[in-house]
Design goal:
Order of helices and strands: EEEHEEEEEEEEEEEE
Number of strands: 15
Largest sheet: 5 strands, antiparallel
Strand content: over 45%
Shape: globular
Structural class: mainly beta
Strand order of the largest sheet: 3-7-4-5-6
Number of helices: 1
Helix content: under 10%
Radius of gyration: 18 Å
C-alpha cells in the first residue's frame, strides 16, 4: 500500500510536485528469501532504519561480486549495512515473516549499475511488471531492464524454495516478473546501466 503524503504547489511559478510515501509488506519465506528494499527511506537505507524489528537472529547476506557478507540482528544490526532501492540480498529467517518497508517512491532519472558476471539486483521503484520493455509495442511497458541476448535472471522461489531461471532471447522466457520487494540474480557478460525515468506526477 502506498499513499500520497505531501504535495506542494507554487502557482506563481507553475511548479507542482508530489512525493509519494507509504509502506510495502513483503512475505519473506523461511529459511531463505531474496529481498529488496522498494522504498527510499529518507532517514537512511541502512538496516537499522529499514528493518528495525525483525526477529532476533535474523541474518542478511549481501553479495560483493565475489563473496557473501553477513549482518545479524540482535536488537540492532551488526554490521549496519545499507540496502538501497535497486540492490538486493538474501535474508535468513527461522520462520516466515512479513517484512514492512517504509519510505518514499524514487522518482526522476534513475540509474542502477549492472556489472558483468553475477550480481543481486531489484527494481528501484515498487512496480510488479516484466523486466524488459516490449521491443515492438510501446503500450506494453516493463521495468526497462537493458537485456541482451543470453542474459539470465534467477529468482529464488517456491516451497521448498529453489532457483527459477529466465533467459533473454528477444524476451525473457519464461517471463521475468519480480514481485515488489523481491530481488534476483542477474547474469550478464557485459556491464551496463539500467536507466529509467519514473514519475508519479499526473
Amino acid at each position: 500500500m502506498l499513499s500520497a503524503a505531501g504535495a506542494s504547489a507554487s502557482f506563481a511559478q507553475a511548479v507542482y510536485s508530489v512525493n509519494v510515501v507509504g509502506y510495502v509488506n513483503y512475505p519473506a519465506k523461511a529459511p531463505f528469501s531474496m529481498i529488496a528494499n522498494p522504498l527510499d527511506n529518507k532517514a537512511g537505507n541502512n538496516l537499522n532504519n529499514i528493518l528495525p524489528s525483525v526477529p532476533i537472529g535474523t541474518t542478511i547476506y549481501t553479495w560483493n561480486g565475489t563473496a557473501f557478507a553477513s549482518s545479524v540482528f540482535f536488537g540492532t544490526w551488526a554490521p549496519d549495512v545499507t540496502l538501497a532501492p535497486g540492490e538486493g540480498a538474501f535474508i535468513n529467517l527461522a520462520a516466515d515473516t512479513t517484512l514492512t518497508w517504509v519510505g518514499e517512491v524514487m522518482q526522476g532519472a534513475l540509474t542502477n549499475a549492472i556489472p558483468s558476471g553475477l550480481s543481486i539486483k531489484s527494481s528501484q521503484v515498487p512496480q510488479a511488471l516484466k523486466l524488459e520493455n516490449s521491443p515492438t509495442d510501446p503500450t506494453d511497458p516493463g521495468l526497462g531492464f537493458p537485456a541482451a541476448i543470453g542474459d539470465t535472471i534467477y529468482f529464488y522461489r517456491g516451497t521448498p524454495p529453489a532457483y527459477v531461471s529466465s533467459v533473454y532471447f528477444g524476451t525473457f522466457a519464461p517471463p521475468a516478473i519480480p514481485a515488489v520487494g523481491e530481488a534476483f540474480w542477474v547474469s550478464t557478460s557485459a556491464a551496463k546501466s539500467w536507466t529509467r525515468t519514473f514519475s508519479v506526477n499526473p
